[in-house]
Amino acid sequence: MIYHKSPEQLEHQSWINKPPLFEDDDHCILDIKKYQSQVDLAIIGQGDNSEHDDILVGLARGKAKSSPPALQKAIDKLAELKRRSPNMSTYIDTVIAQITMHDKFAIAKPLRFAPVLLVGPPGCGKTYVAAQIAEALEIWHGNINLSLATESFVISGCPKGYSSATPGDVARRMSKSDCVNPLLILDELDKASFYPAGRPALTGPLLQILEADTAAQFEDACLKCEFDVSHVSWLATANDISQVPAPVLSRFHIIHVQEATNEAKMNQIWWLTCAVVKEMGLAKCVTAEVARDALHAYLHLSIREWKMKLQLAIAMKACDSCRGDHIVIRLEDMKSLVHEEKKTHIGFIHP
């Protein structure tokens, strides 16, 4: 719980002398003594911006050193995930190797996976499997969408003085994370603009966070503070890496992922349906599955598209269901949710 004090009390004694944001064995990614006055003002809501205050307080909180609670249990979950998504087996094997090594030699440092870039066609399950791995290991994870990133501000924040001044996505995700070593997913890396004309490029901040040495003092330009992201595990996804700068690529282990087989994709959609039910808070109320005719008819949709359609389909079916019901998403349920491009014929029409 956050410890509150009035401005008068803060003049005599800072909250840091009685650290209310920390528990035993917590780690700090922000130098509290260095930024003590900023954090004090943020706690009592007297900083420059309430949203910025919340992010700064989140960074100042003590964070746990996350690791799988039981090695064999984690390996079993990853083995099951590998069976469901065989096209991701290479990446999953690297994760199993790293958690096994960390546990076998009782490494004191927080568990951190080597930066990996998954390259493959859209809809092959790259982002979905990454999130499933984090859940299997019980490690906090978050997404940073780079598809619209045109400059460094997305990563490192926009400085105060601009009308759009805002903290970067790295600070936002680390503020929410309950551990020092979350898994952060850099989604759609190849869609980012690495060469903006006359604007700060994205390349610099990316190179900094991907190197553990420089990541220990990562600065957010809006918050004007440095914090430690050297324990973060970075996973990037891309469809095509031909336009990604070589210095960025050199920081990743690149793993090419093939399109999932029809059988594997149907398996993924089955598990995705269960995950969506849980995500919607309905796990104790209903169960759900997708009928085979609907599966076969729309198997060409990506996993991302399936997730969006399932959220709507399950919500619509749940309205007419009772607690304990089993929801079946049928072909007719999907038809109204899937937009199919109509083919237009060009030419002469003969009578």
Task: Give a summary of the structure in a few sentences.
This protein has 351 residues and is α/β, with parallel strands linked by helices. It has helices at 7-12, 36-43, 50-60, 71-84, 89-104, 126-137, 153-156, 169-176, 203-210, 212-215, 246-249, 262-279, 292-297, 303-318, 331-335, and strands at residues 116-119, 141-145, 183-187, 218-220, 225-227, 233-238, 253-256, 287-290, 326-329.
- In total, the number of domains comes to 3
The largest sheet is:
5 strands, parallel
The count of helical stretches stands at: 15
Mean pLDDT across the residues is 88
What is Rg? 23 Å
Range of helix content: 25-40%
**CATH topology value of the largest domain:** Rossmann fold
Count the strands? 9
Oligomer, anyone?
single chain
Give the strand content: 5-15%
CATH top level class name of the largest domain: Alpha Beta
Order of helices and strands: HHHHHEHEHHEHHEEEHEHEHHEH
CATH architecture descriptor name of the largest domain: 3-Layer(aba) Sandwich
Strand order, biggest sheet?
Answer: 2-3-6-1-7
Task: Characterize the structure shown.
This protein has 351 residues and is α/β, with parallel strands linked by helices. It has 3 domains: 18-60, no CATH class; 71-256, Rossmann fold, CATH 3.40.50.300; 262-335. Helices cover 40% and strands 11% of the residues. It contains 15 helices and 9 strands. It has helices spanning 7-12, 36-43, 50-60, 71-84, 89-104, 126-137, 153-156, 169-176, 203-210, 212-215, 246-249, 262-279, 292-297, 303-318, 331-335, and strands spanning 116-119, 141-145, 183-187, 218-220, 225-227, 233-238, 253-256, 287-290, 326-329. A 5-stranded parallel sheet has the order 2-3-6-1-7, sandwiched between helices. Strands 4-5 form a two-stranded antiparallel sheet. Helix 3 (50-60) packs across helix 8 (169-176), helix 4 runs antiparallel to helix 6 and helix 12 (262-279) packs across helix 14 (303-318). The N and C termini lie far apart (78 Å). Residues 1-19 and 342-346 have low confidence and may be disordered.
